[in-house]
Write a structure and sequence with these properties.
Length: 195
């Protein structure tokens, strides 16, 4: 038994001495820094650009709002050629007045602070002017026609439709300046651009 105890002791000693010591634990992984979130800061709008965009948007939205208000007032259906002629004349007069007001407001603006703004304004002025002039001319012809002249109505009705087509693309003043970050920033704070 002494031998068994001695062998057991020798085995334990050899086992303890024969084991390679455990490899040192790897150093703790360095904590990765948490990603930094960048919160974009909206650049401050140039006050001159805000004033310009406010006037530009107000002129365009003013036209649209006035047109909508005037369209809401119910007008009785004409009962005769003469009444129809009078109604067409009033419609053309309304188009001329509204587009004329928009032209006046757009041309009263100071020069745009960005070249694109000036280009867009000139395009809008041209469209509103074309519709205004078309309505004025058609109204004058209609008003010169003999009362009850049925043939005078078709050209006047065509002029109403064409004047509306002349204004295609003028209902979104902000959409027209999307290529200019400066004007888009200004539009975001301009009261007239909130439709």
């Amino acid at each position: 038994m002494k031998i068994a105890a001695a062998l057991l002791g020798a085995c334990l000693l050899l086992t303890a001495c024969g084991n390679n010591p455990a490899a040192p634990a790897p150093p703790p992984a360095a904590e990765k820094p948490s990603p930094v979130q960048t919160i974009p800061v909206q650049p401050a709008a140039d006050p001159a650009a805000v004033r310009w965009m406010d006037g530009f948007c107000a002129a365009v939205h003013g036209y649209r709002e006035r047109t909508n208000r005037e369209a809401e007032t119910g007008r009785p259906s004409p009962q005769s050629i003469a009444e129809s002629q009078k109604a067409l004349s009033a419609t053309l007069g309304g188009i001329a007045a509204r587009t004329g007001e928009a032209v006046d407001k757009l041309t009263a603006l100071p020069p745009a602070p960005v070249p694109l703004g000036e280009t867009v304004r000139q395009g809008f002025v041209a469209k509103f002017t074309k519709a205004r002039d078309r309505a004025i001319e058609a109204k004058a012809k209609l008003d010169r026609a003999k009362r009850g002249d049925e043939a005078s109505q078709a050209p006047a009705a065509d002029a109403v439709e064409q004047a509306q087509r002349d204004l295609d693309g003028t209902y979104d003043p902000v959409g027209a300046v999307t290529a200019s970050p400066e004007l888009m920033t200004a539009a975001a704070t301009a009261p007239g651009c909130r439709a």
